[in-house]
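Section handout 9: paired folding examples.
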Amino acid sequence: MENYRHTKVLIIGSGPAGYTAGVYASRAMLEPLLIQGIEPGGQLTTTTEVENWPGDSEVQGPDLMIRMENHAKSVGCEVLSDIITNLDLSGRPFVATGDSGNIYTCDSIILATGARAKWLGLPSEEKYKGFGVSACATCDGFFYKNQEIVVVGGGNTAVEEALFLTNFASKVTLIHRRDELRSEKILQDRLFKNPKIETLWFNQVVEILGDKEPLGVTGVKVKNVKTGVLSTLECKGVFVAIGHSPANELVKDVLKTHMGGYVITKPDSTETSIPGIFAAGDLTDHKYRQAVTSAGMGCMAALEVERFLAETK
């Protein structure tokens, strides 16, 4: 049986952007309703140590998200375990349909559905995620001081990650299936001039190698795409840098997007191309993709929603 709910502001997504928006919207007495989505807590729930969250020299990603959820609830944000499967943004009130069968109507929406790192799709990759396999050099590079690591990819993201990781690693091997990079030329020049970086052309990773106790990466098995020859490369960390995909399925045909599907917001704002719809976090951020910047945008979105609702009464 369908259950109809109405709220002044519906928050879709439960990462740092969503929960921060919930805190600020609650403090503004907007009585927000937050729908957690398919991955409650977002990408941070797939990480282990987080050492760049202000106020915590070290915190486990899942623990941080539980704290953020509890904070949002403590100030009055209602958090529901549901997945929005359809959005009707053709008129106000906006209508969201949940996988549960619930129908949510609302005067405004904060989209905080995030983005997903693209992965290689290897079973061994899944096994070592958070234990030597990562998709975020800024998040995890610090753990590989004076160690040899691998970066997989050939675009701007891969080159930027490889360059950044030289701040920590003794050696970085960039593995690419072609013999030329897709990144900007200025980045390539920096890469080729860096003595810590070695490129392995015409190769692809076919398996992540590692130990069980303690769980950790010890190397990668690679295959030459031209000859089919297999070889092994020792390393302590593998950074997959083949891009990110914004979780825009609900709005990709309705809101204006760019840079491969990231939702466009107005300058210095979280307002999208439809009045009353705001976007925060990795759904709109193709540049920084950090928990702290996502939280900041969640704050911005809630404040802008408060202003929008006051002006459209």
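Moving on to protein 2 of 2.
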Amino acid sequence: MGTLNTLTLTDAIRKLHNNEITLDALYADVNSAVSSKNSALNIYLAQDKYAEKSAEKGTLSLLRGVPIAVKDNFLTVGLPTTASSKVLDGFMPPYESTVTSKLKKAGGVIFGKTNMDAWAHGSSTETSDYGPTKNPRNPEHLPGGSSGGSAAAVAADMCIAAIGSETAGSIRQPSAWCGVVGLKPTYGRVSRAGVVAMGSSLDCPGPITKTVEDAAILLNVIAGQDKYDATTSPVQVPDFTKMLKTGVKGVRVGIAYIDHEKLVGTPAAKAVEQAAEVLQSLGAIVDRVPLSQTLKDNTILTPDYAIGVYTVVQRGEVSSNLARYDGIRYGHDRTHFGDEAKRRIMLGTFTLSKGYADKYYVKAQQVRSLYIQNFRQLFSRYDVLISPTSPGYALKLGASKDNPMFGELEDMLEEPSSITGLPGINVPCGHDKKTNLYLGLNIVSAQWNEGLVLRAGYAFEQNTYWNSWLKKDK
């Protein structure tokens, strides 16, 4: 087996453009990696056997025919879309999602569909009806979720880049646990058209890649207003790759959440403190943002309340979105729903029911507004906020069993930025040599400020040794 499958998207595009490598050789190495690893890791649910032939059509386009893995909640013509649920087992979509259409138009190839938590309900990929995915960095551990298959595909070099979706942490958390880069755009920056809906006021498609530059390239391709999604914004999409290398001198950085009781003194908190020192050495102005239980200027509202807000809002939207799967129009009947889907439907229906909607759903939306106010004030003082992506390293297989709040607790540090629609990126910031597991740095900014998030992530990545593809190990 060759090593072309280990190329970053940036390098693969450059080498294909310069005729330094061939598509045949690139696909041979990716296919070899899949053949040797997929049965053990359970990453791909479906693969396009004509992928290499399709790649030849994209050789003159931006992405040059590179193989891209796509989470199995994006509709793809010619490949099944199941959202990892037996309800949709064997479903062949009649049309293409906007995101995958844009990838194809730019010369990318949908190499295969990756495993996920069923309906994107979870943060472990253990709720998949097709079995759990394992973390390529350490197969005894979880890859995270719900985009666990996409993050694992990148970490295992079983694709050149991947696409995931995030409702609250589902791009950034598995990226942290798998030691890769994951970018959640501003809500409305990337179209949700053709994505199996989970929480409609929260869902965000985004790239999962080997480097920050790779993420910027893919965001350039998939971002923009879409006539098929009324929630997409007309805000102009800049060229994110042109902002990457301008550095962080003068950028105001706030360190958030490390004084939370669950983080004080942990490896994750220490890794963020060290990351702050790196950014400061590069010219950033760094300050700590105190944690607060109430809404006060120049403090950050505890993420604890966001857990409840997300739980209520997301369950309410799930109960509405999953109501269409009745086995009449498409798919199988409701007896095929897994336990997690049933729990979320029931809780969502309850919180929206007469006599309880004001008590739960309306209250959750009011608290959501408090988080919006909090971030609005903080981003008048800071350009970016940094925190751990996850409270710790990837947990062992089986950790989510009998824990209905597993995802909410593992994603607690992303939930505030998710319920407020903010952009954020995960960049590897720590590595345990004993377990080969990674920690992630979460960088968040104001709406439409993906460029600044990418700049900060790139500066940190290029001046540290945590990224396993940049060959900067100590």
